[in-house]
Amino acid sequence: MQPAEVARSYDEIAHQWLEPHLETNGMRQHEHALKFSTQQGGRALDVGCGCHGRFICLLSQHGYKVEGLDISARMIELARQRHPGVVFHHADVCQWCPEGAYDFITAWDSIWHLPLAQNAGVMGRLCGALAPGGIFIFTLGGLDAPAEKQDSSMGPPMHYSTPGIPQMLETLAASGCMLRHLEYDQHPELHVFVIAQKL
């Protein structure tokens, strides 16, 4: 399943990401990531930002000028309606090239939709887009080995992949980033969030 197909699936269900129960999803983890920041504010990027904007609001409250990136046209349309002062990029992160450095990048429940073959390259590019001391928080499937699957648990078909924790750690190190935190935050589900910092 290619990213354009994932985009069409998210176009169908974009409205579901405006539901109130999402207000707290990932917020504790982002608050923790902010503690590792060496500065207050700067440039931030929300990869797979969706339409809700909770991370955009949180980072803005901490002095960041935030940009959003999403492959779903409907998600971007709704996000622009909710946050008219924010710059949003409608693009495939596999092809998108960041302009300048960011001090904080979040990719919460987003880059795990990439084709497995694209995962390490995208992660390396996002690490490369960090300014020294910059923070990168993201999620992945907490497996020991690379894997990918497709299901329809959200309704339309969706693709998921994980490089596995060992390969992810290798990619971070090769990209000049240090692991700061790794947590199975929904155990026994294999949902892992990672905080890394650019050296």
Automatic annotation (TrEMBL):
GO BP annotations, alphabetical order: methylation
Which keywords appear in this protein's UniProt record, sorted alphabetically?
A: Methyltransferase, S-adenosyl-L-methionine, Transferase
GO terms (molecular function) for this protein are: methyltransferase activity
Pfam families with a match to the protein in the record: Methyltransf_23
Query: Can you name this protein?
Result: Class I SAM-dependent methyltransferase
Q: Which organism is it from?
A: Prosthecobacter fluviatilis
